[in-house]
Design brief:
alpha+beta; 2 domains; 23% helix; binds zinc ion
Length: 133
């Protein structure tokens, strides 16, 4: 149930921001989840939909992206996205990352561990109530 507690944190952050800026509705929430954080993006999205019920974010479009870590290989110099293995042990043990080019495990890993609310799009009430119609 790690995903639920993460979703609750995201929900609180989003609703707090919405309150501070007096928005009418949260339209869109984009979230980046690092693959090494071991959170399941589908689960997080599912819980967010539940938690946003009866709030200003009820109809928000939620998109959760899984972000690959960047690896730097000390053996062959490769620098780029590292693929996270998705075998059954993945959720139990930290994945053993390898260089995608030479399969060395002598690598430095950057990113891929963080959860970031990347974008928040909101609808504001029209100031002064001046309608254009
Ligand atoms: Zn390499």
């Amino acid at each position: 149930m790690h995903e639920l507690s993460l979703a609750m944190q995201i929900q609180q952050t989003v609703l707090k921001a919405a309150l501070e800026h007096e928005v009418q509705a949260v339209v869109e929430v984009d979230i980046d989840i690092g693959k090494l954080s071991l959170f399941n993006p589908d689960q997080v999205e599912f819980w967010l939909h539940q938690l946003f019920l009866d709030t200003v974010a009820e109809h928000a479009e939620i998109s959760v992206a899984a972000i690959s870590p960047t690896v730097k290989c000390a053996d062959c110099g490769y620098e780029g996205a590292g693929e996270v293995p998705t075998d059954s042990g993945f959720h139990i043990f930290m994945p053993a990352l390898r260089c995608p080019r030479c399969e060395s495990s002598n690598i430095a890993v950057e990113g891929g561990r963080d959860v970031v609310i990347k974008n928040l799009r909101v609808a504001k009430a029209a100031p002064g109530g001046g309608a254009h119609a």
